Amino acid sequence: MKAIIIDDERLARVELRRLLTPHKNIDIIGEAKNVDEAVKKIEELKPELIFLDIQMPGKNGFDLLESLDTVPIVIFTTAYDEYALKAFEYNALDYLLKPIEPQRLEETINKILLRNQEAMDEKLGSVLKEDDQIFVKDGERCWFVKLASIRLLESEGNYVRLYFDDNKPLILRTLNYLDERLDNRTFFRANRKHIINLKWILNIEPWLNGGLLVKLKGDHKIEVSRRQASKFKDKLSL
Description:
The chain folds into two domains: about 120 residues, Response regulator (Rossmann fold), CATH 3.40.50.2300; about 100 residues, CATH 2.40.50.1020. The two termini are about 35 Å apart. Helix 2 packs across helix 3. A hairpin with a 4-residue loop joins strand 14 and strand 15. The model has no long low-confidence stretch (mean pLDDT about 90). The longest helix has 22 residues. By secondary structure, it is α/β, with parallel strands linked by helices. The radius of gyration is 19 Å and the shape is globular.
C-alpha cells in the first residue's frame, strides 16, 4: 500500500519510517513537511494512505483534509490527545500518540489490512446501477429505494445522508465507500463532501476559483471543486 508521511519534524518522519520498516506491505513513497507541500505530493503520487501530523506551521492537518476532494486512508500521528474526537469526525482510521509504540503501530497496520480485505471483498460485487433498489434504515424508519431517485449524497463523518423525495436518512457508510459502489455514469463526486446524481441537474454556472456551481432539482446547490470541474466537463461534453 502506497503511503506518505506528513509531519513538520524531520526526526518524527525518520522515526516513523524506521517503525514501518518491518511492515513490508506499507510502501512509503514520499514525505511532506507542511500542508501545501502535502497537497502537491498527494496530487502527484496518489497515495492510498497518509500518516498525518495535526499541528504544523501555518495550516494544520485538518486544513489539509478540508482541501482534498478524495481523502486517502488517514492515520493521525500527534503528540496531543485533545484532537482525537475531531480526528474521527474526519473519518480517520486511527489516532497514534507520539512517541509511537511499535505494538500500537502494528495494531493500526492490522486495521488497514482488514479494511482493505473487506473493500476487496465488496468490490467483487457488481457496481450498483441507477435501476437497482437498496434497503435504507435510519432509526425506526425503513425504505426500499431505487438509486435513480437519490439526487444527492452528503458526507457527515462516518455517515452519509441520502436525499430522495422528501426524505434524508443517515446511513453508516463513508462517502468513499459509496463512491466506489455507485455507477459513475450516473453519480459524480463533486467534492470532498458530496456525490450528485447527474440526472437531477437543473443548471450549471461558473463558480469561485475555476469551480462550478450545480443546482439540482429540489433546490440543492452544490459546488464542484476546481479539480473535479475539469472531470465534470469532460464527462458531460461531446
